[in-house]
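hey m, so remember when u said the C-alpha cells were messed up on ur end? i reran from scratch. heres the input so u can diff it against urs
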Amino acid sequence: MKIATVGVLLTCLGCLAAAQSSVAITDETLPPFTTGMGYRAQLHATGLAPPFVWSVAEGSLPDGINLSADGMLTGRPTKAGTYNFTLKADDSGHPPHSATKDFHPSVGAALLLAWLESPKVNDNRIDGSVQVSNGSQDTFDLTVVIVAVATLDHRATVLGYEHFPLEPGTNNVPVQFGTTLPNGGYIVHADAVAEIEERNSILRQRLQTSQPLQIVVGP
C-alpha cells in the first residue's frame, strides 16, 4: 500500500512540474498596425524557465515589421491588408518547452489617395479630381499636388494644389484639378504628402495615369 501511495505521489508531482514548466503566450491581440506609422510592441509569455526566445512559426509578419528574439515587434508597416501568422515562444529549459499562438491582425491605411474623377481631356484642358482620407489617429498636415508631365520634353505643369490639415477619421475629401495645356501627350501624377509632426513621420501616396492623355486642338 505504501509503495502504491508513493507511486501516486510521484506521478502527481510529475504532473505538477510539467504544468509549471509549460509555456503560454498571454497576448490575446496585438496593438493596431497602421501603414507608415512607427510600431513597437512587446510580446508576453509565462512559464517556469524564462527568458523566452521568440520566432515566427508560420506565415509572415506585416511588411515592414520585424520580430526580435526577445519578443519585440518593431518597424513601420508598408502595406495595408490582413495578415495571418503564428508566433512561437521557447523557454530556457533543457529541453525547452514551447507555445504557439495564431494572430490575424489587419493593417489599416493611414493615408489614402484615390481618383474621384479620373483625368480626362476636354478640348485643350485636362480635368479631374482626387479624394484623400485619414485612417490614422493623428492630424495630418497634408499637401496634395497634381501635375501633368509632357511625354516629349518631360516638362511638368501643375494642374492642382491644396495644403490643409486633415483630421483623424476624415474620409473622401475631394481635391479638384484642371488647366489648359499645349498640344501633346501628358502623364498625370497625383501626390499626397502627410506630415505628422508629433511622430516625426511623413506619409506619401501617389497615383499615375497608365497611358498618356493626348491633347489635340486645331487642324
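this time it looks ok to me. The domain at 111-214 is CATH 2.60.40.3880 (Immunoglobulin-like). if urs says something different then somethings off w ur setup not the seq
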